[in-house]
Specification:
Blueprint (H helix, E strand, L loop, with lengths): L1 E5 L3 H10 L6 E2 L4 E7 L5 E5 L2 E6 L2 H10 L6 E4 L6 E7 L8 H14 L3 E5 L21 H13 L3 E5 L7 H4 L8 E3 L2 E2 L4 H17 L4 E3 L12 H6 L4 H18 L3 E5 L1 H8 L11 H4 L7 E5 L6 H11 L7 E5 L10 H17 L4 E6 L13 H12 L5 H12 L3 H4 L20 H7 L15 H13 L7 H17 L2 H11 L2 H33 L5 H26 L24 H5 L5
Parallel strand pairs: 1-2, 1-3, 3-5, 7-8, 7-16, 8-9, 12-13, 13-14, 14-15, 15-16
Antiparallel strand pairs: 4-5, 4-6, 10-11
């Protein structure tokens, strides 16, 4: 199919050329004529008397219509956006920072789905000229790069919004001695110190130099040890909520000085009266509501709630604040080596339906990168399509969602979900919370094996099957991630039950099995691990700046050496050089939950 757009506004010509290669049809002279015009209502396709017209209100709606157009050129198709603003927040602070071509690729995808804004979560991964150690060797965006991305996003009608931290979560930079004077404790800034506010003003001034938007996300969450370090030494004990509020008011004034309207995570205002965040009953006291500065919006974040009563009550509470609320849900790609699209889809059905019914004005899909950002930003496109369909159409209709994903990305929805498969095992339930299965099984020590309490012998066969399924996926625009997932399954085919099998054979005195493991299986696992390393490296460098992959290589290299030491230890035992293997003499204890924690908690019981 070939389409020729008539009366195309000048502002759409350059971005249309950028996005055309992603479409299922050609654009150019001699194609089916399609008129283009703006309206005041939203996306619309009108096919009458052989003439076709597309109408849009916001620019991203036009690009969304490009994917809808081929199958809807007769009759009238119309959408009414449920959310005034649909946003993706990408985590660029957990070692993985977009390279510029990849960030632009994401902007094009967001435009095709109809997203209207894009947040880059940058704790310290953006340039602040006055502070050269801020984001040092962390792949920070330069001011020129952010200005380029801001202009590129704007060409699609997408607002690029800075998302930062002005209190905690700044360990990436506060590690350096030059920040000692403004550090309270750990990753928390020292409230009340004038040098702290000079630093924050420099951060916000840097954002103003890079972004045209008048909105900024200032974070302000999880400063649990606030006031317990240098602040306590200087000022004595003060209630944490008082310290936060004092700090917040100063930060908001700085934002206003640079023409920013800030938003922040809302949990602190719930912890003041309730000492917890998620509540099912009870109203926020008026005196707490009065503490919120003017022009500050509250962001309700919730990636977990399965109870509709609690979720709706939290929305009700957030509507009591002065300014319109924002909701941030989850596009789970954090904590593990693979995404959790299927978990996200289930949780989001309830979350997004209620946001739509409650007319929440802004909805954010958050794609965090906790513990090393080992999973691609592009691995959750199925969830982002779900967000878009809840905004514009029928997100709750799975068949509609599948069809829309196919129209947007030219790949079957269920095929894309195979990216989840390394975490999906027959006896593992992710109903309450993702269990981070693949990461646990990969890094579980071959001798220590303290994740063995839930290992099942069938895992090797399951991973062999998963690898075959992933390798059978035809070439597509996400192939580099399918290849990495297939390589991961290749490792886990050998590694998932390795520590369990070693311990079992050792305790039973089956030295022939131990000989086979040392001579054949561990070498196969090392070879598969090296293949996974290469596939993971290719995926990382295609999408991200090189900074941060050093952490992944340190982890994978450490695992390889542990496998070699396990082989050496078994050989010494089999040769009679040692009488026992100390780790295997220890009883594996049930820790109480499947997920033991991040990489440092998986690899060893010792301090890492």
């Amino acid at each position: 199919m070939k389409i020729q757009f008539l009366n195309l506004p000048e502002e759409l010509k350059a971005p249309l050329n950028e996005i055309a290669p992603l479409l299922s049809y050609e654009i150019g002279e001699g194609g089916i004529p399609v008129a283009v015009r703006k309206n005041e209502t939203g996306p619309k396709i009108i096919g009458e008397n052989g003439a076709v017209t597309v109408e849009y209100h916001k620019m991203p709606e036009f690009f969304r219509l490009l994917t809808l157009l081929p199958a809807r050129m007769e009759g009238i198709y119309e959408e009414t956006p449920a959310f005034g603003d649909l946003c993706l927040m990408s985590d660029c602070s957990r070692n993985a920072v977009y390279n510029i071509p990849s960030a632009k690729r994401m902007i094009r995808y967001l435009a095709l789905m109809g997203f209207t804004s894009f947040m880059l979560y940058t704790e310290d991964t953006y340039e602040v000229p006055e502070y050269p150690f801020f984001g040092y060797m962390r792949g920070r965006f330069t001011q020129e790069e952010l200005q380029e991305l801001d202009g590129y996003a704007a060409s699609f009608g997408i607002e690029l919004i800075p998302c930062m931290q002005v209190l905690a979560h700044l360990e990436g930079s506060l590690r350096w001695p030059c920040f000692k004077e403004i550090t309270d404790v750990g990753n928390i800034l020292l409230v009340g110190e004038e040098k702290t506010y000079a630093f924050i003003e420099a951060m916000i001034r840097a954002c103003r130099a890079c972004f045209k938007t008048d909105r900024i996300h200032i974070g302000m969450d999880e400063a649990h040890l606030l006031g317990a370090g240098q602040y306590l030494d200087r000022n004595g004990y003060r209630d944490r909520s008082e310290i936060i509020l004092e700090h917040l008011n100063r930060v908001v004034k700085i934002c206003e000085k640079y023409d920013f309207k800030p938003m922040m995570w809302s949990d602190m205002f719930f912890r003041i009266p309730f000492h917890t965040y998620y509540i099912e009953e009870g109203e926020l006291p008026q005196n707490v509501l009065d503490l919120v500065p003017e022009n500050l919006s509250m962001v309700y974040w919730d990636y977990y709630s399965a109870k509709e009563k609690r979720f709706r009550h939290m929305i009700h509470c957030h509507k009591q604040f002065k300014n319109p609320m924002v909701f941030a849900g989850g596009a789970w790609k954090w904590g593990d080596l693979v995404p959790y699209n299927q978990f996200s889809l289930g949780r989001n059905d309830m979350h997004l339906r209620n946001c739509r019914e409650e007319r929440v004005p802004m909805v954010i899909a958050t794609a965090w990168g906790d513990n090393g950002a080992e999973t691609s930003e592009f691995s959750v496109m199925a969830v982002l399509q779900q967000y878009a369909e809840y905004c514009y159409a029928k997100g709750e209709d799975r068949e509609w969602l599948k069809a829309r994903f196919q129209e947007t990305f030219h790949l079957p929805f269920d095929t894309f979900l195979l990216l989840d498969s390394p975490a999906l095992l027959s006896d593992v339930s992710h109903e309450d919370h993702p269990q981070y299965t693949a990461k646990l099984l990969l890094y579980n020590d071959p001798l220590g094996g303290w994740g063995d309490f839930k290992v099942t012998p069938s895992y090797s066969a399951e991973y062999a099957q998963k690898q075959e399924e992933l390798l059978a996926v035809p070439e597509n625009q996400f192939s580099v991630y399918f290849k990495a997932s297939a390589a991961l399954c290749g490792v886990l085919k050998e590694k998932a039950t390795l520590s369990w099998d070693i311990r079992e054979a050792y305790l039973k005195g089956e030295k022939d099995v131990l000989q086979q493991i040392a001579g054949e299986r561990i070498p196969r696992a090392i070879e598969a691990l090296e293949e996974y390393h290469l596939a993971a490296r290719e995926a990382w460098y295609e999408e991200r700046k090189s900074f941060g992959f050093d952490v992944i290589e340190l982890r994978l290299g450490g695992l390889k050496e542990r496998l070699r030491t396990a082989q050496w230890t078994l050989e010494r035992y089999l040769a009679g050089e040692i009488d026992s293997i100390e780790q295997l003499e220890q009883k594996v204890l049930e820790t109480g939950h499947r997920y033991i924690g991040g990489w440092s908690n998986i690899v060893s019981g010792n301090r890492v």
